[in-house]
User: Fold this.
Amino acid sequence: MKFISEDESAALVTHAMAFAAAREALCAVVEGAVLFPAVLAHGSDAANRFSIKSAATAAFAGLKVGSFWPGNPAIGLPRHNSVILLFDQRIGRIEWVIEAGKVNAYRTAAADAVAADVLARPDASVLAIFGAGNQALFECLAIARIRPITEVLVVARDEAKGRDFADALSAEGLNAALAGAKEACARADIIVTATPARAPLFEADWVRPGTHVASMGSDAAGKQELPPALFERAALFCDHPAQAAVMGDLQHFTGDRARITALGDVLLGRAAGRTSPEQITVFDSSGIALQDLTIARSLIAAKEAQDRQVFGSERESA
Assistant:
């Protein structure tokens, strides 16, 4: 069994790597990969939660365990953690164990960036981000790579936390400021929700024509970030329709589910994406195991290339 530590994976991952891996994963969804039902569970204390997501393709199989321990900051540890397991399919043993806490943030943001790359207007320049936590930063940075973002509007329940987050974005070279929910929606070209909300964060009629909306916080039954009325005005996309129906924001959609398109079909040219500058598009990103497995393979390739370079240099100097 081979191992990549949290420090190693955090040093290896990049937004470009995560984007390519997410794109591969979203295509694999519609090309014969098998995604198994997610397991949502908790620790001895019910407030400490974890999920298990697994998948298989003809080339690889494995799973990701993601955990959320809300009390961790009190002892200097992050709330979120993640570990990816890849099988050696010849013998059924685990071949790779990869600690991937920071990688998970890159991987989650990358799926929204891939969606924005094909669904947001090419000239989209104002991004509204609902949420001011750790994931929100990665969302903004990933989307700023693929669209000419000139302004980020931060919508946060805690004003002090929102100001700190706006400062963090400014330190990354993004012009950021606090805004109310209605103002942010009215001005945004792209809206991303990155919260644990269980009720809509804004009104449907606040979203102007031409906006792209991405929900990534709704990843369990009962969670909700978007107003269902928005679905009636928008073209609907998601990472995996079967999963979105039970744990994504689209669990609250009561209309014709034939209207929901897997993003992989758009990426492969099998379905239309944005069809006009005035169209509203929605991407429901509940998170799929294939994202974890594809980025795991990218990390392995990067580590093996790094090891060859190091060992090669050592042999030359010996």
Remarks:
- The mean pLDDT is 96.
- The longest strand covers residues 80-88.
- The chain has ten helices and 15 strands.
- The chain has two domains: 2-103+291-314, 110-289.
